[in-house]
Write a sequence for this structure.
């Protein structure tokens, strides 16, 4: 039992170290990989239960992450690319934007890229155009359903104890996100009534208690709770489509 | 024989000059496929021909893949740069981001990068800049981390960038935080 606990500790420690290295919070070269490898090599996998086997895989994957980071770090040091993160922070603070831009220019040799098209591309485009239906025939008609006020009330009722509900939702977000950015959808669909949650969330965002951002490339909205007072600037509306059922 | 080599040089020029992918240039296997096993000799011959015009063939190894691209042989002067359409603060965003990622050993948290830049550049502009550079292939985003994209390795002399940054003397700070944000949709 004791041996299993010790093994569990080693796995946990290795996984945590890998996370710290991946997040850039720990110098990968400070991890003694050989020591961990020796321990892992000596484990009899046949005696491990399923959960420990899973941890063993995660620990090995963590070890690979650390090794990769060590390789990059050594390569960078060898190439003279090693620099203290703090020094970059100080330089970013003390140098003007013009100077930073000039530094970039002095080390930049842009690539030459010519955009071209061939007769085959033109032929394909021509064939596509000829087979294309007129816009009128292609247009998709959207039919907006009529929703009565009773129907709306059946899905969402404005609660009397709004203040209490808002506080509860804020605390839920706080514990769910741990103060970090989380996907808006992931959080909203955690609840039985996502529409009501989204409705309440809109209050929290408007009040400046929750920060919201949109990542265009991912097409995802992110939210995070704000523990300090935040001055609301540049107020504008965001519309997000949500389904009324739990995912 | 000579004609065959000439044809291959022309083919190599087309492969490297004309845009084929999102990232600049081509991978090693493409050169091998179209130019044959002795593709390095052909590339060297092409390099000699484009040198007098101020270009060179550059190769970099990123994640076990070798990339080849034609770059300008020496950095361009600021005056000529105007036509590229990048703003000074966007360039500052890229300079700091690349340096910070290198200092962090290859990847850094997006939030940390934004925090460093926030003092001088409005947040929305930083976000827009980072997204633009991700789109252009200079940076790559994985979850909450940002790392260097293939294009940065090809186009920047990273060692020079770091040494210039370390050696740069302090300057007066330009404040752009007063800039107005464009109207929202």
């Amino acid at each position: 039992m004791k041996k299993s606990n010790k093994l569990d500790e080693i796995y946990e420690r290795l996984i945590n170290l890998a996370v710290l290295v991946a997040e850039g919070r720990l110098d990968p070269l400070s991890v003694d990989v050989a020591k961990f490898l020796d321990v892992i090599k000596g484990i009899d996998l046949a005696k491990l239960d399923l959960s420990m086997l899973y941890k063993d895989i995660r620990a090995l994957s963590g070890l690979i992450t650390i090794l990769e980071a060590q390789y990059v770090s050594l390569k960078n040091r060898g190439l003279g690319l090693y620099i203290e993160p703090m020094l970059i922070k100080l330089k970013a603070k003390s140098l003007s934007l013009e100077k930073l831009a000039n530094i970039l220019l002095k080390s930049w040799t842009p690539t030459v890229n010519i955009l071209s098209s061939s007769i085959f591309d033109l032929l394909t485009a021509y064939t596509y155009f000829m087979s294309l239906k007129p816009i009128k025939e292609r247009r998709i008609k959207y039919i907006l359903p009529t929703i009565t006020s009773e129907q709306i009330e059946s899905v969402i009722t404005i609660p009397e104890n709004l203040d209490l509900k808002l506080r509860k939702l804020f605390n839920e977000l706080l514990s769910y996100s741990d103060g970090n950015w989380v996907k808006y959808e992931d959080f909203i669909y955690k609840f039985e009534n996502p529409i009501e949650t989204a409705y309440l969330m809109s209050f929290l965002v408007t009040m400046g208690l929750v920060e919201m951002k949109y990542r265009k490339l991912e097409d995802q909205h992110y939210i995070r709770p704000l523990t300090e007072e935040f001055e609301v600037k540049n107020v504008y509306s965001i519309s997000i489509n949500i389904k009324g059922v739990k995912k | 024989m000579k004609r065959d080599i000439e044809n291959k040089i022309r083919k190599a020029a087309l492969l490297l000059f004309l845009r084929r992918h999102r990232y600049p240039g081509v991978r090693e296997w493409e050169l091998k496929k179209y130019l044959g096993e002795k593709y390095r000799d052909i590339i060297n011959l092409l390099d000699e021909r484009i040198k007098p015009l101020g270009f060179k063939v550059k190769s970099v190894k990123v994640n076990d893949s070798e990339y080849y691209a034609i770059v300008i042989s020496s950095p361009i002067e600021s005056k000529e740069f105007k036509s590229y359409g990048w703003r000074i603060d966007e360039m500052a965003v890229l300079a700091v981001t690349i340096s910070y990622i290198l200092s962090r050993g290859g990847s850094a948290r997006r939030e940390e990068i934004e925090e460093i830049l926030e003092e001088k550049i409005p947040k929305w502009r930083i976000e827009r800049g980072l997204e633009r550079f991700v789109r252009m292939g200079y940076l790559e985003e994985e979850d909450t981390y940002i790392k260097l994209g293939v294009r940065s390795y090809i186009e920047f002399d990273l060692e020079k960038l770091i040494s210039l940054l370390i050696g740069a003397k302090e300057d007066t700070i330009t404040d752009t935080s007063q800039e107005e944000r464009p109207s929202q949709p």
